[in-house]
Automatic annotation (TrEMBL):
Record-annotated MYND-type domain positions: 215-260
Record-given protein name: MYND-type domain-containing protein
Keywords: Metal-binding, Zinc, Zinc-finger
MF GO annotations: zinc ion binding
Superkingdom, natural source: Eukaryota
UniProt key word Protein transport: no
Classification via InterPro entries: Znf_MYND (IPR002893)
Length: 328
């Protein structure tokens, strides 16, 4: 991996980052910790941001003057990667890398991207925002780039009204403008009941580990795919003992015995490949409010969030429930 990072840092071609993206997809458990290790993290961020701008010789916007330049030597204008016809290619390669960080196999969607951006949120915001304004809207990573730009804009202190029109349009930030139908604000939140449930189901589809209580087995240790629940087809188990404990253990707050029928009811009409509007509509049709809350709390208690965040989300949910009881 050190040799691979060396070739990425030479910036003679976009191919080394493409190869790294493939490694991240195939063997994330070994590759991702290497990328975000303190001794290498800044170098990867610097290289990816340069490629998002399509300029391997620039200092990325927002890079603090107090920070050392982590990559040397400087890229000469005669470098192959500096050629104008390669600007778009390297932008797309860097965007694909970020999409693999967020959505690749075995990715913890929220935590992994947070780990990659931590400490460099403003630098990465400027790079992805600039790239979103220039890249092909049909490119598979365009939506990921726009979403990341919106999320990081809050940390960078940039108001949403200042974001590029393409980013605003992709993220539906202007939907409630004149002449449009105002939508439910809670449903539009990234942490709404339907969206969080969808995010957790997508996480379960990507991450190849056992979902049994307190089990840490992964396919990397066992060397074989884990079977899924025969009923809901969403959760995996390394063996019948983990499945039995998850199904009916009195110690569990969310027994699969209670969650499984709700998932089956939901997935009869909804598919995890739906867009947000389709998923939210199907979610509301399939489940009453009590069932929605059960799935929401099940998703909150999954591995997507830190314990502190989980407690804060549950407190917000409790306040919302109290508001509903008082007013309705």
């Amino acid at each position: 991996m050190d040799a691979h990072l060396y070739w990425c840092s030479q910036r003679f071609s976009a191919a080394p980052l493409t190869a790294l993206t493939v490694l991240l997809i195939l063997v994330r458990a070994h590759t991702f910790p290497y990328i975000v290790a303190e001794s290498r993290h800044a170098k990867f961020v610097y290289l990816v941001c340069q490629m998002l701008y399509g300029d391997p010789g620039m200092i990325p916007s927002g890079w603090e003057s107090t920070l050392p330049i982590p990559v040397s030597p400087a890229v000469l204008p005669t470098s192959p990667l500096a050629a104008p016809h390669l600007h778009t290619q390297q932008l797309h390669v860097a965007a694909d890398f970020l999409q693999a960080v967020e959505e690749g196999i075995d990715a913890n969607r929220l935590q992994d991207m947070d780990s990659f951006c931590r400490g460099f949120e403003t630098v990465i915001f400027h790079a992805v925002h600039n790239a979103s304004a220039r890249m092909d809207v049909q490119h598979k990573s365009f939506a990921t780039m726009c979403s990341l730009a919106v999320v990081l804009s809050e940390i960078a202190g940039v108001p949403r009204s200042s974001l590029h029109p393409r980013v605003r349009a992709a993220y539906a930030l202007d939907r409630d403008g004149p002449g449009s139908v105002t939508r439910n604000r809670e449903a539009d939140s990234p942490l709404s009941r339907p969206r969080l449930t969808l995010a957790y189901l997508q996480h379960l589809a990507r991450v190849r580990n056992c979902n049994g209580p307190r089990c840490t087995q992964t396919v990397f240790e066992d060397g074989r795919p884990f079977p899924v629940c025969a009923r809901c087809k969403t959760v995996r188990y390394c063996g019948p003992e983990c499945q039995k404990r998850d199904w009916s253990s009195a110690e569990l707050e969310h027994r699969h015995k209670d969650i499984c029928p709700l998932l089956r009811r939901l997935l009869c009409t909804a598919e995890i490949g739906m867009d947000d509007e389709q998923w939210t509509a199907a979610f509301d049709r399939a489940l009453d409010i009590e069932a929605q809350l059960k799935l929401y709390l099940w998703a909150v208690d999954g591995p997507l969030f830190s314990e502190e965040t989980k407690q804060r989300m549950k407190q917000n949910m409790k306040r919302a429930e109290e508001f509903i009881l008082v007013n309705y």
